[in-house]
Amino acid sequence: MATTASPIILSVITANQRRKEKLEDYSRQDAVAAQAAEAARLLLDANERVARQSAASASETQSQLKQIHTLVNSKLTEEMKRSLIALKAQIVLLRRVINLDLAAGTETTEADRAMLSSLERTVEELSNSLTERDAVTDAAADVRAST
Fold first, then answer.
1. How far apart are CA 57 and CA 70, in angstroms?
2. How far is CA 126 from each of CA 77, 83, 84, rounded to the nearest angstrom?
3. Residue 86's domain spans which residues?
4. What residues have CB less than 8 Å from 107, skipping those under 6 apart?
5. Domain count, the chain
6. What's the pLDDT tens digit per position in 23-73?
7. Which residues contact 120 (CB under 8 A, 6 or more apart)?
8. Where are the alpha helices (DSSP H) in the chain?
9. Which residues contact residue 90 at a Cβ distance below 8 angstroms, ignoring those fewer than 6 apart?
10. pTM higher than 0.85, yes or no?
């Protein structure tokens, strides 16, 4: 009887040990799964925080870029206006030189006439550019005022 009972007892003990090992393994797997879920939650929270910070930073950068753009454009417009005034003064002076040449009986040089023509074209182009810039600036101001 001992020879038949011994394998049965051994089998019961082994089955109990395997069941216990499986339960311990399931507990370990549950603990690992809980840790993985917590890590995923923390990662999602961190990603959301980074996304909010990035959005805020991008918004601030856009605002600063708009300010810089406005400043650069206004400075460029001022410089173009100063250039226009200087070119008009050059035209006045060159016309006086040409008139003095005529009064003195000296013929106006081709270079003087070419220079006068070039200055007049440049003044016209610069005036047109400034008119366009003013129109764009006014349109942008209207858009900002309506929002």
1. 20
2. 10, 9, 7
3. 2-146
4. 101
5. 1
6. 999 999 999 999 999 999 999 999 999 999 999 999 999 999 988 988 898
7. 91
8. 2-103, 110-146
9. 119
10. no
